[in-house]
Design brief:
By secondary structure, this protein is mainly beta. It folds into two domains: 13-83 and 118-143, Immunoglobulin-like; 146-285, Sandwich (Immunoglobulin-like). The protein is built from two helices and 22 strands. The chain has helices at 31-34, 237-241; strands at 13-20, 37-44, 50-57, 66-71, 74-82, 88-91, 100-103, 111-112, 120-129, 137-140, 142-143, 145-154, 164-170, 174-176, 188-190, 193-196, 205-213, 222-227, 230-235, 254-263, 267-274, 277-285. The strands form five sheets. Strands 16-17-12-20-21-22 form a six-stranded mixed sheet, with no helix packed on it. A hairpin with an 8-residue loop joins β16 (193-196) and β17. The longest helix is centred in the last third of the chain and has 5 residues, at 237-241. The protein is elongated, with a radius of gyration of 23 Å.
Length: 287
């Protein structure tokens, strides 16, 4: 039924939205396969204030991943976050410019525990809602998180002298309404989920799994890998990954960082590969 009041400011009208996730390495719509939740924030274009918000699961959408949302009339900007469950906190703020999404860190340690909860974002501007029949708006989400797998392994038939440890820090723990990292964002410490490699009678190494906010040039990302008191790597994660000429940080979301270590009497020979491409080789003195 239509709104027939003389003053329609209190009326609600349909805003038709269709969700996709098209920009990915498979070059197909992966929304149904990957995105489980949606958080929608509608901001008035003229005043910048929050006009309406809605959270829903992807299962609540129609079969073609569309929905109709009843909202006040006006011209709006819509911020959509996808995948948010418990790892991220959204502060809608008092205006579009004040909105922020942050990753949740442990208040005691300051680190972010591993959780494979991925994040998507879209900002669509100039949405008009006035009661007229419109075809709706396509909301194509962009992924803002990465899987980073750091494997520290001994060459076949050898054993590492100590259990490996690793950590990742990056100044990327907060996003604004535009999907950008605000200037001055502090570093986030990511803690891995560690799984030991299995090789009978030996200490072959371990696999360290991380899910981070999106990596990008200039994010101050840092990877540290140690064997006991010996530092195997301590430097920029983004620069290291970027040594592979096929890396596109905007498109790719899965980075495999492989340290193959050959132990010697007083040193380690280290070969590093990124997504299967060897990028560097060096030796480290054991401490």
């Amino acid at each position: 039924a239509g709104c027939i009041r003389d003053n329609r400011d209190d009326c609600l009208f349909p805003l038709r939205l269709h969700f996709t996730y098209l920009y990915n390495v498979e070059d197909t719509d992966l929304f149904s396969d990957e995105v489980e939740t949606l958080c929608l924030y509608l901001y008035d274009t003229e005043t910048g204030t929050l006009a309406a918000s809605r959270s829903m699961t992807a299962a609540e959408l129609d079969d073609d991943n569309s929905t109709v949302w009843l909202v006040p009339p006006g011209r709006f900007s819509l911020v959509t976050w996808g995948g948010v469950k418990s790892r991220y906190d959204i502060d809608p703020g008092m205006s579009l410019d004040a909105m922020a999404l942050s990753i949740n860190a442990d208040p005691q340690t300051g680190s972010v525990a591993q959780d494979r909860e991925h994040l998507w974002h879209n900002l669509t501007t100039d949405l008009l809602v006035n009661g007229d029949l419109t075809p709706g708006y396509d909301i194509d989400l962009h992924k803002l998180s990465n899987d980073v797998t750091v494997t520290i392994a001994a060459t076949e038939g050898t054993s590492l002298p100590y259990h490996p440890s690793s950590s990742i820090t990056a100044a990327n723990g907060t996003c604004d309404a535009f999907g950008k990292i605000p200037d001055g964002t502090p570093a986030t410490l990511y803690a891995p989920q560690v799984e030991a490699l299995s090789r009978a009678g030996l200490l072959p190494g371990s696999v360290h799994s991380y899910t981070t906010m999106a990596l990008a040039d200039g994010d101050g990302s840092h990877l540290n890998v140690d064997l006991g008191d010996t530092t195997v790597f301590d430097g920029s994660l983004t620069d290291l990954i970027g040594e592979n000429p096929g890396i596109d940080f905007d498109l790719l979301d899965d980075f495999q960082v492989y340290f193959l270590i050959t132990p010697g009497d007083d040193r380690l020979d280290v070969a590093v590969s990124i997504n299967g491409w060897q990028v560097t080789e060096y030796d480290v003195t054991l401490r």
